[in-house]
C-alpha cells in the first residue's frame, strides 16, 4: 500500500460506515482543494458531509501514511484548516502509526478526531487463531452401468442418449416410474453403503412393463433393470487465513470504536 491507496481506502471506509447515517463523500484526493476565508486553498484528503434535515455538517479527514506517530503540530495544522474553512465542522486525522501523547491531549481539547488505520501486527494475532485448516470428506454415489433386459423392441433406442426425465416405465397396473426415479432410488441405497465397493441392484419388473417416451410411445417391453455403482470417497483440504478476513484494523480513539476491514471491503464492528 502507498499513501494514495491509503487515502482511497480511507474514503471507501467512511463511505461504507456513513451510508446508513446519510454521510456522503464531497470530494477526495490530491487534486481536491477548498478555499478558506483567508483566500488560501487547502488540499483536502477526504471531505464528508451529512445532514440532519436542516443543516449540513462537513468533516475534513486528513490521512497520514507516515512511518512515525503523529505529533501535536500535525493536529494543530488540521485544526487551523477547519477554522479557516468556515463551513467545516470538524477535523479528523487518520494515521498508520498512531499518535503521540501531546497530539492526543491537544486533539481532545479542540475536538479533532483521531483514528488509527493500519495492517494487523504480530501482537494483534496473539491469542487468536490465524489459520484454520478444514479437511472435508466428500462421499459421492456414482453409476457405473445401467442395463435393461428387454424381451421385445418396438423402436430403436440408444441407451447412452436417454433423457432420464422423459423416458418412463409403465407397469401393467398403469403405474408410471421414470428412469430417473429408478436411478435416484438406487443412489439413495449407495449413499448409505460402504465406500469404493461396487454394488449391483437387479430390479425385476412385472410382466408387460413397457419403456415409453414422453409422447407415450412404447419403445420396448422390459423384463428387468440392472444397475451397478459405488460410493466414492474423496478428501478435500482448504485453509481459511485470517489475513483474508482481517486486512486492516481501524480504531477511533475518542469514540472507542474498533473495526476490522477485509480485502473485499467488508467492515465489521468489533468494539
Overview of this protein structure:
With 271 residues, the protein is of the alpha+beta class. It folds into two domains: 142 residues, Trna Endonuclease, Chain: A, domain 1 (3-Layer(aba) Sandwich), CATH 3.40.1350; 104 residues, no CATH class. Helix content is 20%, strand content 43%. The chain has an eight-stranded mixed sheet, sandwiched between helices. Strand 14 and strand 15 form a beta hairpin. Helix 2 runs parallel beside helix 3. The longest helix has 15 residues.
- The run of helices and strands is HEEEEEHEHEEEEHEEEHEEE
Please indicate the count of domains: 2
CATH architecture of the largest domain: 3-Layer(aba) Sandwich
Average residue pLDDT: 88
**Proportion in β-strands:** 35-45%
Which ranges are low-confidence, i.e. pLDDT below 50, for 5 or more consecutive residues? Answer: none
Q: Supply the CATH class of the largest domain.
A: Alpha Beta
Number of strand segments = 16
Give the neighbour order of strands across the main sheet: 1-4-5-6-7-14-15-16
Largest sheet geometry: 8 strands, mixed
Give the class from helix and strand content and strand pairing: alpha+beta
CATH fold topology of the largest domain: Trna Endonuclease, Chain: A, domain 1
Straight-line distance between termini = 25 Å
Helix content range: 10-25%
Shape: elongated
Number of helices: 5
Please tell me how large the radius of gyration is.
35 Å
Amino acid at each position: 500500500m502507498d499513501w494514495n491507496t491509503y487515502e482511497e481506502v480511507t474514503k471507501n471506509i467512511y463511505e461504507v460506515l456513513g451510508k446508513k447515517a446519510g454521510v456522503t463523500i464531497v470530494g477526495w484526493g490530491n487534486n481536491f482543494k477548498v478555499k478558506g476565508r483567508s483566500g488560501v486553498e487547502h488540499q483536502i484528503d477526504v471531505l464528508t458531509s451529512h445532514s440532519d434535515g436542516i443543516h449540513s455538517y462537513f468533516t475534513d479527514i486528513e490521512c497520514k501514511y507516515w512511518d512515525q506517530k503523529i505529533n501535536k503540530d500535525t493536529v494543530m495544522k488540521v485544526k487551523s484548516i477547519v477554522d479557516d474553512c468556515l463551513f467545516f465542522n470538524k477535523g479528523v486525522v487518520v494515521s498508520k502509526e498512531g499518535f503521540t501523547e501531546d497530539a492526543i491531549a491537544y486533539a481532545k481539547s479542540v475536538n479533532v478526531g483521531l483514528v488509527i488505520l493500519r495492517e494487523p501486527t504480530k501482537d494483534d494475532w496473539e491469542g487468536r487463531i490465524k489459520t484454520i485448516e478444514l479437511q472435508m470428506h466428500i462421499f459421492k454415489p456414482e453409476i457405473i452401468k445401467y442395463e435393461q433386459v428387454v424381451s421385445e423392441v418396438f423402436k430403436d433406442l440408444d441407451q447412452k442418449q436417454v433423457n432420464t426425465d422423459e423416458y418412463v416405465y409403465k407397469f401393467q397396473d398403469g403405474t408410471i416410474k421414470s428412469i430417473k426415479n429408478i436411478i435416484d432410488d438406487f443412489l439413495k441405497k449407495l449413499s448409505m453403503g460402504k465406500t469404493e465397493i461396487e454394488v449391483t441392484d437387479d430390479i425385476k419388473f412385472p410382466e408387460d412393463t413397457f419403456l415409453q417416451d414422453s409422447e407415450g410411445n412404447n419403445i420396448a417391453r422390459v423384463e428387468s433393470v440392472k444397475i451397478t455403482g459405488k460410493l466414492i470417497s474423496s478428501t478435500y483440504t482448504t485453509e481459511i487465513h485470517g489475513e483474508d478476513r482481517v486486512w486492516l484494523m481501524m480504531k477511533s480513539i475518542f469514540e472507542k470504536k474498533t473495526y476490522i476491514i477485509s480485502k473485499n471491503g467488508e467492515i465489521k464492528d468489533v468494539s
